[in-house]
Amino acid sequence: EPQSAYHGNGREAIGLNILRAENGHTLDTIQAAEAAMEKLKTRFPFIRFEVSYTQKDLIEGSVENMLGALREAILITVAVIFLFLGNLRTMLLCAVSIPFTYLITFAIMWMFGFEFHMVTLTGVILAVGMLLDDAIVVIENIERHYRERGRDLAKVVVGGTGEVMLAIFSGTYATVVVLVPIIFIGGYVEKVLRPMSLSLCIALVASYIVSVTIIPILAPLLLKKSHRPNRLETVVTRASDWFVQGIRDFYLGLLDTALRHRFVFLLAAVLLLGVTLKYARPLVGQNVQPPMDTGIIKINFEADANSSLAESHGILRQMEEIIRRQEGLVSISSALGSEPAVVSFGSGKNPQQGNITLNLVDRFHRKESIWQVEDRLRQDFREIPGLKTADVFDYGATPLSSLRATVDVMLRGPDSGVLYGLGREVERRLMQVGGLTSVSLSWGDDKQEILFYPDRERCALYGISVRDIAAQVQTALQGSTASTFRVQGEDGFPVRVRYAESYRDSLAKLAGIRVHTGFGEIPLATLGRMKPEYVPSLFTRQNLMNSIDVFGYRSQAALSHIMENVTRELKGIELPPGYTLSQEGDAKLGKANFAALTKAMGIGMVLLYFSLVPAFRSFLHPLTIMSAIPLALIGAFWSLLVTGKTLSTAAFMGIILMAGIVVKNSILLIDFIETARGKGMPVGEALRESVRIRTRPIVMTAFGTAVGMLPIALERAIGLERLSPLAVVAVGGLMFSTFL
């Protein structure tokens, strides 16, 4: 008798779940499976083969969108450079550095076997604005030398490049060194962020190489030719000069005021940072990873514990009918129950339990978000009679597939009855937690079974053991293999023998089952008593102890806000001796995740400081340079709050990356100040001169880096919801620290 069912797009079918090898490529696996399926179609033309679900469209769509975002990032960044320089030839020189840099980057990535997927491509896009930083500084300095010091192009190029070579090397090194700890930190953080960090590091090193080799070689070819600015260049140059001069004058005025009232300015900065960390930071909230609209919805459902497979099947049909009314539906895959001792979609599930996976068109081709669709499905499912629970959540709602829910409260102890009572209490409390869309138990105690209590004295009188009774009852109810039907060229088909359903569909008929004894056949009821009882619908164990889980699913609420409420609601629960309560799910991973990220950032800051000490031959100047990082944190947290993002793994990565970028810009100023002081210029005058000369390249690189990240911040590709906080943090922190 079947204990399971599978539907592919609403039709009964047999499903085959294909997984890639640990080191395999998803698209290669999909292509191989599709090729094998075509052969099967030819071999078995009377069988209909169909792909119910595949990640192919999601992956290919994401990559296509990512390449589009890369094109946008390059075009926007180059346009911004033109707006600042007002010179098409100089803009062209900057633009030329991009293909050279990417050529080197992709060659190195190919040599070391990198995969080109969403994470590595995000690193490549993030690098667009940063790639031009070094080239901009070199070109701008060469042009300034050319305007101020004459027409000897060789000396101008050598002098202009040499003057900033060490500074941009230190800046590039500073950005790379803060990323290095992430590459080796281990755990979930390394697994997720290592490809992006490596691709960024490779691109930044390649950018530096191009800036000090290719750019100086090409610069004379453009500078030595006489060039009369056209009308567009004239207009853009005037606007750019007006904008930069305004910023320069503002900075100089602010600098003069700050030098006269240093304590006031420092106190204001400290207070602003304190307010940000105390008020803005908690409001932002934390997530291991932010929600993502993949267009894939998962549904775990359970019917009444005493429902038959046919009744559960009917509930599944009603759910599928509701789902088919959804606009933009691509496919449905449904699994119900599981077969004993068979590894399948629903392994370990009862006939009353099932799951549904539905695929929608991507978010660019539908009006509603995936969370709006989920809300409507939850409402509609409540109208289905006999449906006990229906947990609706988006694909990838947890960072790891091994995590079963956002909130997973696990209770362990020796007695299942006590565990169920504790589980119901936890369930009741979690129902009060805001941000959770549904709460459910991993099992209930409402399954009715008929238990047989043998009379051992009477069994001994009839000469039959309890084991023999169990074997005969099993044959009557579930059947036993009596023979094998063999067909040439095929495996044998087992022939099972058991009672017809009409002889086993009531308690009275079960009591009348004939049992063979040494004294002939007698009714089962003669050997003991039968009693209906409620028992757990499922038995689960953790570390050899009985366990029950209380699952909580969320929509878009921040994990930290949910867990604060969960902790508050669970406070005061009294556990009997020998029973434990633990937080699993996202909360457990999140704690380890942010501890690893904090450790990586701390190591990065230490490496950064000690790498700057020999570069500036000072223990104080590196601290001065790194003082810009706390100011950038102010912009980072407020930008997250304004855009509605949370402090996630990607956002933390953005903070680390932002620290490197901010330090890089600070190095340009400090390096010029130290060079000027070495020539005998007073400190105040050196500060003013550095602002006067370095304002344009610093503002230009800041804007260039920021706009290069805009396609990621604006989520211009499927899947970028997971990585957009990185760009939001980097852009917000960079712009705030630049203007502060």
Give the gist of this structure.
This protein is of the alpha+beta class and 740 residues long. The protein has 21 helices and 17 strands.
Q: In words, what does this structure look like?
A:
This protein is an alpha+beta fold and 740 residues long. It has helices spanning 26-43, 56-85, 88-111, 118-149, 153-184, 187-223, 231-260, 262-284, 309-324, 370-381, 416-430, 456-462, 466-477, 507-511, 559-570, 585-616, 621-626, 628-643, 649-678, 683-713, 724-739; strands at 4-8, 11-12, 296-303, 329-337, 353-360, 387-394, 407-413, 436-441, 447-454, 480-485, 493-497, 514-517, 520-523, 528-535, 540-542, 545-554, 580-584. The strands form 5 sheets. Strands 2-1-4-5-3-6 form a 6-stranded antiparallel β-sheet, covered by helices on one side.
How is the topology of this model organized?
Blueprint: E1 4-8, E2 11-12, H1 26-43, H2 56-85, H3 88-111, H4 118-149, H5 153-184, H6 187-223, H7 231-260, H8 262-284, E3 296-303, H9 309-324, E4 329-337, E5 353-360, H10 370-381, E6 387-394, E7 407-413, H11 416-430, E8 436-441, E9 447-454, H12 456-462, H13 466-477, E10 480-485, E11 493-497, H14 507-511, E12 514-517, E13 520-523, E14 528-535, E15 540-542, E16 545-554, H15 559-570, E17 580-584, H16 585-616, H17 621-626, H18 628-643, H19 649-678, H20 683-713, H21 724-739
Antiparallel strand pairs: 1-2, 1-4, 3-5, 3-6, 4-5, 7-16, 7-17, 8-16, 9-14, 10-11, 12-13, 15-16
Helix pairs in contact: 2-3, 2-4, 2-7, 2-20, 3-4, 3-6, 4-5, 4-6, 4-20, 5-6, 5-16, 5-19, 7-8, 7-20, 8-18, 16-19, 18-19, 18-21, 19-20, 19-21, 20-21
